[in-house]
## 1
Amino acid sequence: SLPGFTAVIGPPCSNDVADVAHRTWRDSTGNRAVVVSPLSMATNLADNASYPNLARTVSNDEHAAHGVVEVCVELTWDRVAILHDDSTWSVSCSAAFQASFAAHGQVLDGGLVSFSLAEFDAGTVHARDLLGRLKAASPHVIVVATQPHVQRAIYAWAYDHEILHGPGYGWCSNCPARPLSLPSLPISNRCAPPSAARISFWP
């Protein structure tokens, strides 16, 4: 590490924040610098004992989870699924949603689908597979807590193949800060599936 520095701005990713702010790493290096993260939202990083001298400029996923659950309860959406990968942020986000649903006495009848981000990036897990697992649980609303490039692939496949798409289905994204569209995608599916409700939450 650089000698004498007292603070560092970044990184935005919760996985990286956990690596550079965890007490174990600090104890091994003697580093006590303040870490300021502009986008990290994982709820477990709020543990000041495990992650000392960590400051974040956004609130954690508990607030977004409460917002989504309140909407589901208010609109009586009773078949909700959660899709998440195995990154620090996604696992934490999914746990926050599950806890909030449980606090409201809600059961996730739509299912819980998790996957390995490394396997998705390697091509051994495809958007087709994830949508198939979701469809098997017959959800009406899908809460998506995964990386933007995965969301783009899922929305495009859902639209092109009319899976969990159209009236009666809703998609709630918890990652709206980064654009989900790509110029390389056909204009028809450059965003979330048309005719399906898409709600983005950013606390």
Note: The helical segments are 14-21, 23-29, 61-74, 88-103, 117-122, 127-136, 148-161.
## 2
Amino acid sequence: VNGGRIRGSDDPYGIGLYLWTTYNDNQSSNEDNLRANVDLTTHITPWLSLLTRGNISNYNTKIEKEFLGDGVGFSNGYYGLNTSRYKSYRLQGLLTATKQLTGDIQGSITLGAETNKDQIGDLISASTNGGLSTTNPYFYSLGNSVNKPNVSQNYRPARLTDAIYTYGDVTWKDMLTLSYSVRKDYNSTLTLANGTGDYSFV
């Protein structure tokens, strides 16, 4: 009638806390995850093609904790809420040429460019302070907090990465292949070399 879990001599086996939390502490988690990809290939000539690609990713989470108070009158209850949100996208274009150069030599070359954007993501964490009001201990809400709720918000900064590149290979008699790749990136989070980076290999 008065609420609360058994303690002390009323709990000779020491299982009161275990039973209380098992049946009265609840946590739920919801996730929304959207990943989409679209590819469009255009055959310009028999040996030249263009691939255009787009990707998006949205990821949102919501976690709630609802703990019934174990004190007298169901005091010391708790409600917590955590949400997060992340979004990103990528756009890419690849122009590829593949051709038989001579009777023994075949070659291919690809020119590409892309942009990647991680948008601002946020994480919000809020919880009751001083427990839930015993007037309605089953009302799990920040507005039912005894004291002013605890609230914090953090951000994941936005990041932009652009790149241009080329890669390809030359094959002789299907036995010997020479490959190469050259790439230049621009990253908004880099502070050196104007945020650019160069990569190449042969």
Note: The mean pLDDT is 91.
## 3
Amino acid sequence: DQWTRVLEIATRRMQDSASTTRRAAMQLVRTLIELHPFGPALQGSGDELTKADHLLREVATRLQKLQQEEAREAVRQAEEVLEKNGQDDETEENSLMSNATKRLKKKTVTEQTITKEVEMCLAEDDEQADAAEERKRQRKALKRMQDCYTQRLQFVELLDAAEARLRSLLTSKTVSDVTEAISVVVELRLRNVPAAARAFDQ
């Protein structure tokens, strides 16, 4: 988030009354444009903004879906706890059965039943853990993408907003203003930002 914050400060300082400050601000803006971490495409208002808007809405939709899945999982687990408590009550009642009746069950069958039940329980736990871990991974990736594109959008909007300042600096009577403004416009032109196209035409 420091990229957009620094760019905002630098574009404001492009209007400073001191020429050395304006020059340093434009050099910083050019460096930020050159080294920004938001991917190769940086096309300003239009395609870039439309793409970012659609992507952010898609991310928000998927995050909402994950929340709904987690809510359903929480309800399911609560129902399992209630059901287990009911089964425990039944088990306590069944414990009143005579020992003679229990001994009628074959040992091998009992062992097989217990083993199978344990394996099924472990498999179910692994599946639930995998599903929870996958949701956690997806949430983390979606949050990272949301943050990246939100900052990318702010970065582009700040560049678009700086167009008027750049155009005024191109007509400045101070040589350093014109020289640095040209350097910024050329860098913007390389990135196909619409603001640069208008400044370049000027």
Note: The CA atoms of residues 8 and 158 lie 7 Å apart.
## 4
Amino acid sequence: THAQVDLQFANIDAIMMNQGASKVFRNSKNNGNKIQGTPYLQQMFAIAKVENVNQKYFMRYNVFADEFEFITPKNDTLVLDKIKDFSKITFTGINKKYALVDYINIGGKSVKGYLIESHSKGNCTLYVQERVLFYDGKVAKTSLEKDMPARYVKSDNAYYFKYNDQGIIEFPENKKQLLKLFPAKKQEIEVFLKQALENLKR
């Protein structure tokens, strides 16, 4: 269950603890049906810097829920609300930068969620969306079948592109299709994509 946190605050760290964390995270109870896999790509909490917050926190990203969890000084685990004030989150140890943005996902739905800023230069930004899918368990219908437990499964990353102040779009199937969308900016985007590809390989 999620519990509301008192909204009174006196400084930016208090905003993080209150307005920016209106839900208390609790581990769901095991009902006897164990779920295989994990909604996280990085299970352990790691030091992260949140935009507009002075103090650093131990955080982790729940990929399936598209939520950031953080540990408070009182050792509570909270879920960070998706608000503009905290739209940039960086895991400082590996310099992995997440941004809270509005975009159209691969299912064609408009969402507000976290994408990784993989490479940004000039007017161009390449984003990466980490993906974990959930499959419900299935009970065997005959003695020849086996029960299938519910499970989290890591899926392929999705890629998104933004030019200037235009909206974030799903990366087309190939570079040629992307260049057709911005014919006047072909040279600039080609240079950017070459650098972005090198960055992804690191």
Note: Residues 1-12, 22-32 have pLDDT under 50 and may be disordered.
